[in-house]
Amino acid sequence: MNKPLLSVITVVFNNEKHIERTMLSVLNQTYPNIEYLIIDGKSTDGTLEIIKKYQSELAVFISEKDNGIYDAMNKGLAKASGDYVIFMNSGDEFYEKDTVKTVFTRSADADIYYGETEMIDQNLQSLGRHRHKAPENFTWRDFKYGMSVGHQAIYIRRNLVEHYDPKYQLSADIDWILSAAKKARKIVNVHQYVARYLVGGLSKKRHFQSLKERFLIMQKYYG
C-alpha cells in the first residue's frame, strides 16, 4: 500500500509545560512516513532545551521571532514537503500512537481526511468532544454554522493549501481550511477521534475580535 508522506508542523512559544507531550505524540507514531517540523518563536523558558533533546529526529527546526501564530504556521508550510500536511501545535496531540496509520488506511488518495477532536484542559483532563461534532460528510459549506473541524483533526493534501492570511489574527485557520475544502474533490471522514486539543481561554476583547474575523470570513465564502 502507498504510504504518503505526512508533514506534521508544531508551532510553539514559551510552552515548556506541554511541548514534550506534543512532540512525543508525533515521534511515537507507528506510521513510518512522517516529516516533523517545529517552528519556535524564540522561546525564553525551557522550551528550546526540551526540543533540542529530540532535534536529530526533526526534519526542520526553526527558532526565531515571528509575527504571531499564523506567521509561524506559514513558515512551517513553506518548509513542508509532504503529500499531506497537519498542524499539531504545542499542547495538542495525536489521539493514539497509531492514529496516523489508521487515518491513511481508511481510504486511498483522499484530498482531505478528518475526524473528531477531544478537548482537554491545562491539567490534561478531558472536557469531552469538540463543541461541534465533526459532520458526517464534511464540505466547505459546513463552516457556515460554526467551526466543525479543528486544524489538529484535519489532514489536507499539501498542493491544496495556501498560506494563512495574515490579516486574520485569531480565525485564519477557518479561512485556511475553507479555501482547501472548496478545492477538494474527495473528503473522507475517518469516524474516530484523531486528536486532543488543549483549550485556552480568549479574553472578552479577543473573543469579540475573533467573532468579527469569522463574520468577514463567512461573508467571503457565503456572501
Question: Can you give a write-up of this model?
Answer:
- With 223 residues, this protein is an alpha/beta fold.
- The chain has a single domain (6-222), classed as Spore Coat Polysaccharide Biosynthesis Protein SpsA, Chain A (Alpha-Beta Complex), CATH 3.90.550.
- The chain has helices spanning 19-27, 47-53, 69-79, 99-106, 172-183, 204-222, and strands at residues 6-12, 34-40, 60-63, 84-87, 93-94, 112-120, 126-129, 154-157, 187-198.
- Strands 1, 2, 3, 4, 5, 6, 7, 8 and 9 form a nine-stranded mixed beta sheet that branches.
- A hairpin with a 5-residue loop joins strand 6 and strand 7 (126-129).
- Helix 5 packs parallel to helix 6 (204-222).
- It is globular and about 45 Å long.
- The N and C termini lie far apart (42 Å).
Give the helices and strands, then pairings:
Blueprint: E1 6-12, H1 19-27, E2 34-40, H2 47-53, E3 60-63, H3 69-79, E4 84-87, E5 93-94, H4 99-106, E6 112-120, E7 126-129, E8 154-157, H5 172-183, E9 187-198, H6 204-222
